[in-house]
Amino acid sequence: MEIFPIQKIREDFPILHQMVNNHPLVYFDNAASTQKPIQVIKAISGYYETDNCNIHRGVHFLSHRATESFEGTRKMVQRFINAASSNEIIFTKGATESINLVASSFGKKYISSGDEVLISIMEHHSNIVPWQQMCIEQNAKVKFIPIHENGELDMDAFRKLVNEKTKLIAVTHASNVLGTVNPVKEIISYAHSFNIPVLIDGAQSISHLGSDMHDLDCDFYCFSGHKMYAPMGIGILYGKEKYLEAIPPYQMGGEMIKTVHKDTTTFNDLPFKFEAGTPNVEGVYGLHAAILYLQDLGMDTIRKYETKLLDYATNKLTAMGDIRIIGTAKEKTSLISFLPGNVHPYDAGVIIDKMGIAVRTGHHCAMPLIEWYKIPATVRASFAFYNTMEEIDLLIEAIIKVKNIFG
Ligand code: PMP
Q: Separation of 32 CA from ligand 1 center, angstroms?
């Protein structure tokens, strides 16, 4: 039987080994941001110790070395998500910036009065507001795919919402509130039968499921480094070359130009056309180390272990009787949103924190979804591969305490 090397993994994450409120830290806020292994931390400090300089421009040794590492990581990301070309990999600040880029540039080129953009009611604000604001500017409309009570997308409603006005579909691969893994392949192939491009928000799926651009065949895909064990401030936009070639640049400045004269500018080739200014080089070094870490562990191994954590926590919470789990889709990533009886999620979060356990409470940047469920907020426990069943037992103890205090 395969043994998951949990103790060795936990040793790689220095932050986990501390006391919080006189209890050993239990970190269950991984959907907001994951912790970083020592390999990632060392990659960042190593960059500043030996390689720091601006890239692409210098003829000197350091600039060559840093540029090679930076561009090597672009190729590594290309292989990690199985994209056809490294020209399709754009370094951004994160998922939010990636979506803003597409909404702005695709919107300018392809969206006009009367058009529709189709998203779902379970989207993070990052995959709502850029479309909403772009549509206001272009006099277009955002339409929302509804969900079923269990948190699965209503695919019949989706098909009915697609029409000749639909110019783009943007949906999340996995929900940050419900954990639902959406049938994105089905959505993409249906959209493509009408020649409609699809953007997939991979912020909540990349570290749990990985991703394969060739298999998915989506037109745009985005994710953030900090939710996959890499630093903050670095992320990826994947776009099919035909779209990235066609849409205008997002930001103007150095790096994204070929020539500049007083009245005219010619833009650089892909991928640099979308990378104006000095990039986050340290972030790219950290992302490189994070991808290596995930590959060493293996995405299948990660998925199997995290599913065990999810099943264990779901069974324990269900057995408590008066816990309402929000999001019971058949396919889920390893997170659980719940309402602890009639205790307000915020009050529960404060008590749980007193026991050294970090969970998230609130609307999780998905207010339309929370309104759809007619609930005030949820408590969300989100698990990573460094979490353990024993930690879940501690969460259950904390919830019992919450109920005793507010009961
Ligand atoms: N989409 C989803 C589904 C998310 O969960 C998040 C972050 N919570 C984002 C987008 C935005 O990611 P970032 O803040 O890293 O840009």
A: 8
